[in-house]
Write a structure and sequence with these properties.
By secondary structure, this protein is an alpha+beta fold. About 25% of the residues lie in helices and about 30% in strands.
């Protein structure tokens, strides 16, 4: 129970506030029995923590929320245009491509790229073209990947050496197999007093030696250990309904970001609220970064035998980014695109080969 006068918390059933002595009789009513104000109360500029104007209970706004409802009495508090200015976790990117036509030109260039995609946009039906402010968690991740891979230079040198040795062996065998023109192949007789005579070919012995030694060199120590260090500000889409638009290797231009200010967002552009928490975003970021590191390693090294990635994850930041969503129907197949309205670059594409 909270005192309606000073907001202090008191034991349930108390008749007077222990701090200011005010009567708590009215505060004992249930949240459903108390009438909420007719209009939301505007929060002061720079507010980071609030008290309910009706019952005095503390209200803790969550990042991205524009209207907060008191869980004790049901009163509504609305954040003003500058209500988040002192909260460093909530930022936004300005909209540099607010108009539809420039984005349609970019889409036309993308969809009609290549001989197989000629006139693809003209043959497709545009079903959606909308601009929204989408929440992303920007998760700083430092990744170090330890790699054990085959040393291709060493293996190539060993292969060349082995090939040269084969040439020597086969050249030596050439004389025995008929190169001399005389008696053809002549085995050598090895005698032992306790064993029956054994006939061996000198050329065959040589060949076996080089096959076992020369060829074996490539599989022994032709390995090298490498480390690959990368730092990421990885964006994780904070809305489950937009998971399919999750970026894989896209980086927002964070140097352009400013503190969240709803007055800088043109009217009519929806501000989407997120439903993915910071902890979930961090776990997703680790999974995505591991995949990116693996892809980079396979692009750089061949015949990877072992690979392990260690990661350090920092504090995430909530960023609202302007995103153009375009959806087409192309001969019964769905094509979906997401463009960064701050940079004009493509973030993700679905169904576009």
């Amino acid at each position: 129970m909270f005192c309606p006068k000073c907001g202090s918390q008191n034991p349930d059933g108390a008749e007077y506030c222990m701090k200011c002595g005010a009567s708590l009789t009215g505060a004992q009513q249930s949240p459903q029995s108390q009438a909420a104000p007719k209009a939301p109360v505007l929060a002061p500029t720079g507010a980071t923590s609030l008290k309910c104007p009706n019952c005095g209970a503390p209200i803790s706004p969550k990042f991205g929320e524009m209207v907060i409802t008191c869980e004790y009495c049901g009163s509504a508090v609305t954040l003003g245009n500058e209500g988040w200015t002192s909260i460093q976790k909530s930022t936004m990117l300005p909209i540099k491509f607010p108009d539809k036509d420039p984005m349609m030109a970019k889409i036309h260039e993308l969809m009609d790229k290549g001989f197989l995609h000629r006139h693809m946009q003209e043959e497709s039906t545009l079903q959606e073209m909308t601009l929204s402010m989408v929440p992303y968690w920007i998760v700083p991740v430092s990744a170090r990947t330890s790699i054990t891979a085959a040393n291709m230079l060493q293996q190539t040198a060993q292969t060349a050496t082995t090939a040269a040795l084969f040439g020597v062996v086969l050249g030596g065998l050439g004389g025995g197999f008929g190169g001399g023109g005389g008696g053809g192949f002549r085995p050598r007789r090895i005698w032992s007093p306790s064993l029956p005579p054994i006939h061996l070919s000198l050329g065959t012995a040589r060949l076996g030696m080089f096959m076992g030694g020369g060829m074996g060199m490539g599989g022994g120590g032709a390995r090298k250990a490498e480390e690959m260090d990368n730092n990421y500000n990885f964006p994780v889409v904070a809305l489950k309904a937009l998971t399919e638009y999750q970026p894989r290797d896209y980086v927002f231009n964070l140097t352009d970001r400013t503190l969240f200010d709803v007055s800088k967002i043109p009217k009519g552009i929806p501000i989407l609220n997120g439903d993915v928490g910071e902890d979930d975003a961090k776990n997703q970021a680790k999974t995505y970064v591991d995949q990116v590191q693996s892809q980079k390693a396979h692009d750089k090294y061949h015949m990877i035998q072992q690979m392990h990635t260690d990661m350090d994850v920092g504090t995430a930041e909530l960023l609202h980014a302007p995103i153009w969503f375009a959806r087409y129907d192309h001969k019964g197949e769905r094509i979906a695109l997401a463009f960064d309205a701050n940079s004009g670059f493509l973030i993700t594409s679905i169904g576009l080969k």
